[in-house]
Amino acid sequence: MNCKETQEVIHGYLDAELDVVHNLAVEQHLQECAVCTRSFQGLVSLRKVMTSRSFYFEAPKELEKRLRSAVRQANKAESPRWSWSWNWPRVLSPLA
């Protein structure tokens, strides 16, 4: 496997999505190629940062309350004042 082929499948290798043959080929290439190894190590580091808890922002509770209130108000404004759905069986039963 060469560098171009390795770079095409490196994300699949990182995610453990490759079959055994391709997995072994990538591993062998990474042992032989310092450039691809550095690239792979960069992806591993990036994954660690992205999955760490320090990367996430927790919104203040007051903001959450304001958003929930705004959504409730918007839902009330959009919902109809009455609904025909409760009365459909009575309307349709004489037609049957």
Query: How much helix is in the residues?
Result: 55-70%
- The helix-strand sequence is HHHHH
Strand content range:
under 5%
What is the β-strand count?
Answer: 0
Can you describe this structure?
With 96 residues, the chain is an all-alpha fold. The chain has helices at 3-14, 20-32, 34-51, 61-78, 88-92. The protein is elongated, with a radius of gyration of 28 Å. The chain starts with a helix and ends with a helix. The model has no long low-confidence stretch (mean pLDDT 86).
What's the quick description here?
The chain is an all-alpha fold and 96 residues long.
List the helices and strands and how they pair.
Layout: H1 3-14, H2 20-32, H3 34-51, H4 61-78, H5 88-92
Notable traits:
elongated, 5 helices, 0% strand, mainly alpha, 96 residues
